[in-house]
Each structure stands twice: as structure tokens, then as C-alpha cells.
Design goal:
Blueprint lengths: L2 H14 L11 E3 L4 H4 L5 E8 L5 H14 L6 E8 L8 H6 L16 E5 L7 E3 L6 H12 L10 H7 L7 H16 L4 H20 L1 H16 L5 H13 L9 H23 L4 H10 L1 H19 L4 H17 L1
Parallel strand pairs: 1-3, 2-3
Antiparallel strand pairs: 2-4, 4-5
């Protein structure tokens, strides 16, 4: 039995005896005494730093995330919690300082909490801080990108995800087989929203076959830029967010080197596009518009067809009343 297993077991047992404990099933409790015995060892780990007795919407979203992860095949991932007292003795204050999460000016409660930090296995330096909105979907996407696991997020499909994982590094024949099977699955979709997401999977399969993981990195950067670019119709925003959930599935099962290379190439492309735009050239904008134009509009049209059809067959009551009034007026004239 490994020393790490004993540490985790002891931590779990201790949690169950803490008076009034707010322990979330599916997580382990860490503190200053056991933190370095667990973190940076053989597991990827997401650590939540929070007050001792968290509650409210943010805690509810965390519990949804935990449930999502526990229902996923992710044997190399741990979810952990560091409880931080804001009165009396503060045994974990050193951990807050280490990750620059201590309260400015000593204000209570600490406005920087809850905070989420992801630490790669076998490393004390591969650390990523989550800076997005605290939602189960946002945290799930963060974990999917960092831990490279398959999570069921809005837009994703478990069967298609299995074909996406490791697709880039598979043989040419295997790629063709996966694409063929994916096409069969998508053809069977009857739900319009599911069909639109399925079409994007197929587009991604074919682009990765042609351009490798560079497509995933560049498409991710492009969609993120569009989402930050200002006013976007709600339907299109939701469509883009679902795409961001799908894209990391193609990173699962791939090497760190190939992913790093693709992301580096995407950053260089973004830099060149920014430079081109600053000199008055609109090539970058045209490229982004082309990607977000016909394909996205077609997807929205397909997804919203049912709603539009319903509206078309149900004229507003005001219009009916107006028509009835006109008929009555004409009758009075006669």
C-alpha cells in the first residue's frame, strides 16, 4: 500500500470526524500539514481554497462539478479543498500566502475566496489559476483543458468524444474509420440542437485530419476572441460556448509536446493577425468573419427552425383583434 494512499485515506477519515464539517463527498481535505504530501505527486489536482463553511450559488456550482467529475472516468484526477479560517488561529494562512490568495488588508471574509488552482502531477511549478466565472460549466471546461479528460459539458456527446480522443495521433485508416462511425451517429440525431453540435464534431474531425491539432488551437483562439469581441446575439454566443466545450476533446490522449506546439503556433498566428490589423490590413478580421459567417448562421437557422415555425403559425392576438375591428367597421359602413 503506497504512502500516498495512506495519506489520502487518513485525510478522508479525518474529514468525517470534523464537527459540523462541510466536506463535499468526492473531494479530499488538505491543509498545511498534508498539502505537499499530496500535491505535485502522482495525481493532477484541482484545489479549492475557501472559507470554512461555504454556501450559496458558488458552492452549489462546485458540488455540481464534483458530481460531474465523479461520474467521469478520470482516475488520475483529484479534487481537493483547503478550508481557510478568517478568525482565531489560521493554520492554512501560509498556503494562502504561497498562492497569493491572502486577504488584502486583512479584510474578512476574504474577497479572493473561493479560488481554484490546478496543479499538474509530478510537478510543483505547473500551476494554473482559474480566473473565469465560478460555474460548473466554466470549471468543467477549465479541467477538461488542463487535465485533458472527457467531461460531459453542454454541446459534447459521449460517443463522439470517444472518437475525438486520440484522433490526431491515430493512423490514416483509423481516422477514416472514426469519421465514418461519427457520421453514422450524427445522421441518427433527431434533436436539432444535437444535430448542430454533431455537425461541428464532423467539421472538427475533417479539419484535424487535414491540419492536425493546429486547427483545435487556432479555432479555440478564434472563438475565444469572438466571444470577447463585444455584442454577440445570444444564439450565436451559446453556439460558440458549446464549441469551446467540444474542442478540448481532441486534446485527450495526445502528447504534451504536440499540444504545446499547436498552441504556440496559434499564438504566433494571433500575433501576426494583430500586427496586420494595426497596420490597417483587415485580413484577420475577414478570416474571423468567414469562419463565423455562413457556418454559424446556418447552425443558428437549423437550431431555431422549430421556434420560428411555431411563431409563423401563431399570429399575435393584437393583429387578430385589429383585423376583426376592420371587418366590423366595414359592416357598419354598409
Amino acid at each position: 500500500m503506497s504512502r500516498l494512499f495512506l495519506v489520502l485515506a487518513f485525510a478522508s477519515i479525518c474529514c468525517s470526524f470534523v464537527s459540523g464539517s462541510s466536506h463535499v463527498h468526492g473531494t479530499i481535505e488538505l491543509d498545511a500539514a498534508n498539502f505537499d504530501k499530496v500535491v505535485g505527486k502522482q495525481y493532477d489536482i484541482l484545489v479549492k481554497f475557501d472559507k470554512e463553511y461555504p454556501n450559496g450559488e458558488k458552492e452549489d456550482e462546485f458540488k455540481k462539478l464534483v458530481k460531474l467529475v465523479t461520474e467521469t472516468d478520470a482516475p488520475n484526477l483529484l479534487l481537493a479543498v483547503v478550508s481557510c479560517a478568517d478568525y482565531g488561529e489560521k493554520p492554512n494562512e501560509g498556503l494562502l500566502a504561497r498562492f497569493k490568495l491572502q486577504s488584502d488588508g486583512g479584510s474578512s471574509p476574504n474577497p479572493k475566496l473561493p479560488a481554484y488552482v490546478f496543479i499538474k502531477k509530478n510537478s510543483s511549478t505547473a500551476i494554473r489559476r482559474y480566473t473565469g466565472e465560478i460555474t460548473a460549466n466554466g470549471l468543467g471546461l477549465f479541467l477538461k483543458q488542463e487535465a485533458r479528460i472527457l467531461l460531459e459539458l453542454p454541446g459534447t456527446n459521449k460517443r463522439l468524444d470517444k472518437f475525438a480522443a486520440g484522433f490526431n495521433s491515430s493512423t490514416s485508416d483509423e481516422k477514416q474509420s472514426r469519421i465514418s462511425k461519427a457520421e453514422t451517429i450524427v445522421k441518427g440525431f433527431t434533436d436539432k440542437r444535437e444535430a448542430v453540435d454533431g455537425d461541428f464534431y464532423l467539421k472538427a474531425f475533417k479539419n484535424v485530419e487535414a491540419d492536425g491539432l493546429d486547427y483545435i488551437a487556432s479555432e479555440t483562439a478564434r472563438v475565444q476572441k469572438l466571444l470577447k469581441g463585444g455584442s454577440i446575439p445570444d444564439a450565436r454566443r451559446r453556439n460558440f460556448e458549446r464549441r469551446l466545450n467540444i474542442l478540448p476533446s481532441f486534446y485527450v490522449g495526445e502528447s504534451d509536446a504536440s499540444i504545446s506546439s499547436a498552441e504556440s503556433n496559434a499564438k504566433k498566428a494571433v500575433g501576426k493577425a494583430a500586427s496586420s490589423k494595426s497596420t490597417g490590413t483587415t485580413a484577420a478580421d475577414k478570416k474571423a468573419d468567414a469562419g463565423a459567417g455562413a457556418a454559424e448562421k446556418a447552425a443558428e437557422k437549423k437550431a431555431d427552425a422549430g421556434a420560428k415555425a411555431t411563431e409563423a403559425t401563431s399570429p399575435p392576438k393584437a393583429a387578430k383583434k385589429k383585423k376583426s375591428t376592420k371587418k366590423k367597421a366595414k359592416k357598419d359602413e354598409l
